[in-house]
Amino acid sequence: MLSIERKRAIVQYVKSRKIATVSELAKHFEVHEATIRRDLTSLEKDKKLKRTHGGVMIEEKVVSEPNWKKRSEVRYEEKQRIATLAATMVKDGDTIILDAGTTTGHIATALKDRSKLTVITNDINVASIMRFSLSKVIVTGGVIYPETFILNGMITSGTLQSIHVHKAFVTTPALDIDKGLMHYDEYLIPAKQQMLHSADEVILVTDHTKFGRISLYKYAALDEISSIITGKEIDPVLKEQFEEKGMQIYTT
After folding, report:
1. Number of other CB atoms surrounding residue 74 within 10 Å
2. What does the pLDDT look like over 52-100, one tens digit per residue?
3. Is the distance from CB of 207 to CB of 77 less than 8 angstroms?
4. CA 89 from chain center: how many Å?
C-alpha cells in the first residue's frame, strides 16, 4: 500500500473507532510502528488527526446540540447509570448544585425521594422533577431558554456567585484531554464557571461520547474538576490517557 493510501485508510480507521494506538495501527496495516508514527506526524500536521500519548484520535467539533427532547432520548440507559452512581455520592445534609442537562435530570430523579438535602439548579426540568421532594429546592432564576429549559443570564450568575455548596454536578458538551471543558455557546459559560467556583467538590457527569470533543470556547481546565462519572462504554485507552493527566474517573 502506498503511503498516501495508507494515510487515507488510517484516517478512516480512526474515525470508525475515534481513538487508536500506534501498535494497533501497525498491526492492522502490517507495517512497522516507526512507519505509523511518521504517518501520524504527517496527518497531525495536516490537521487530519490529533496525536495523543501512545496513539491518535479524532477531534469531533461541537457547534450545537439537539433540543432537549432529542437529547433526553439518546444514551438514556447510560445516563441513568451515571445518575445512580452520582446519587450515591450525595450525603444527607449536603448542599448541591445540579447543572442544566439531561444527565442531571436523571440525578434529580434519583434524589427526589431523599430528604435533608438542599438542591440548587438552573434547569426548570430538574426543578420540576424535584418539586415534590422533601429536600429544599432552590431555582437560580434568570432568563429561560425555551428549547432547553435552562435558566441563564445575569440573575443566574448572581445567584450562583452568592452561594457555597458541598458538591456541584456539572455537564459539558465537549471534553478535550488538553483543552479541558469546552462549550459552543459563550452565553452559557459564565454560569457554568460560577458553579465550579461555588463548590468544594466538582463532579463532571457526562456520557462517554463527550470525550475527545472540542468546541469553540474553553471554560475550565481539567484540574478545576474533582472527578468524572461516565459510562462503561468509554474507550479504555482514552480513559487511561485522562487518568494519566490526574483525573479520577468512575465508570458504571
Report:
1. 12
2. 767 787 777 776 676 666 777 788 999 999 999 999 999 999 999 999 9
3. no
4. 18
* CA dihedral sign of residues 241, 244, 245, 249: positive
Task: Determine which of 6-15, 25-34, 74-83, 101-110 has the lowest per-residue pLDDT on average.
Answer: 6-15
Query: Is the dihedral angle over the CA atoms 222, 228, 234, 239 positive or is it negative?
Result: positive
Upper half-sphere CA count for residue 87 (Cβ side, 13 Å)? 19
| CA nearest to 79, candidates 109, 59, 49, 55 | 109
Going by their DSSP bridges, the two strands 60-61 and 50-52 should be labelled as unpaired
β-bridge partners, 144: 151
> Which cell numbers hold the place of 225?
474538576
Separation between Cα atoms, residue 146 and residue 48, nearest integer Å = 37
| pLDDT tens track for 181-216 | 999 999 999 999 999 999 999 999 999 999 988 999
Q: Phi and psi at residue 130, in whole multiples of 5°?
A: -90, 5
